[in-house]
Design goal:
Length: 255
């Protein structure tokens, strides 16, 4: 049997980068996937590329009304939800001194409030199943200071701590739902290309096998492989945990 056979998975920000890699991995291993994104054109193309296991749904994760509608639509279409990957994200380049309140609120509306709303509205359906799993995309930015990603780090820190509260709440309430966070280092996606000002450059070649050198970016599949594990029942004894996927970045001495 495939690793997530029979499960229904909702992946926010699934039209691009890590979310798209998650959607492909989950579909390959037997799940039906709902790709939810603001970007309709890329989302529809992603669902078409994956094939009949995937559908696209327009969702702005910062909108409470959108979440209510999305979960209602999933209940009507599938009658179940087993996996929620809160992955949608945006990056804003500004330090604590030049970050505007508007930028700070925007980053947190998408990545902090978006995760809160996703968990809040998906939980009623997730808890009706037998093995629900929420995977929240945080970042190594929740562990160390990145001055230029100030608003981003604030949001990702909130995701890290929210994850543990949600996990504890589910256990205390007797819900069969786990909740874990993933903390990626730099992975080759459109977001990172933009942040690094490398727009227009050819993506680098990341070897598909073997250990990567310390200065390498990771590939989206390096994160998707972990998300697949956390989505599957193979990780049933794991909740409230944080998983760093950074090729040793956080554990290396400075310099
Ligand atoms: N790429 C990395 O190195 C890296 C590292 C750590 C964490 N992350 C996190 O992983 C997640 C995915 O990042 P990525 O690198 O794949 O970025 P990406 O830009 O390739 O994809 C982000 C997706 O989120 C969607 N999105 C943005 N705002 C949205 C909203 N309000 N509602 C719904 N969808 C929305 C975008 O349309 C896009 O499809 C983000 O949360 C990011 O912070 C990425």
């Amino acid at each position: 049997m495939a690793r997530v056979e029979g499960k229904v998975a909702l992946i926010t920000g699934g039209a691009s980068g890590l979310g798209l890699a998650d959607a492909k991995a989950l579909a390959r291993e037997g799940a039906r996937v709902v790709i939810a994104d603001l970007n309709v054109e890329k989302g529809e193309a992603a669902a078409e590329e994956i094939g009949k296991a995937a559908v696209f749904m327009r969702l702005d994760v910062s909108s409470e009304d959108d979440w209510k509608r999305a979960i209602n639509d999933i209940r009507s279409a599938f009658g179940q939800l087993d996996v929620l990957v809160n992955n949608a994200g945006v990056v804003i380049l500004s330090t604590p001194e030049d970050c505007t309140l508007e930028e700070f609120k925007f980053a947190n509306a998408v990545m902090s409030e978006g995760v809160f709303l996703g968990c809040k509205y998906a939980l009623p359906l997730l808890k009706e199943g037998k093995g629900g799993s929420i995977v929240n995309m945080s970042s190594t930015a929740s562990h160390v200071g990145y001055p230029i990603f100030f608003a981003y780090t604030a949001a990702k820190g909130a995701v890290r701590s929210m994850t543990k509260s949600i996990a504890a709440h589910c256990q205390a309430s007797g819900y069969p739902v786990r909740c874990n966070s993933v903390h990626a280092g730099a992975i080759e996606t459109p977001m990172v290309q933009t942040a690094q000002g490398r727009l227009g450059e050819k993506p680098i070649d990341i070897p598909t096998s073997g250990v990567l050198p310390p200065d390498s970016l990771g590939a989206p599949s390096d994160v998707a492989n972990l998300v697949l594990y956390l989505a599957s029942d193979e990780s049933r004894f794991i909740t409230g945990a944080e998983f760093v996927v950074d090729n040793g970045l956080l554990s290396r001495p400075a310099g």
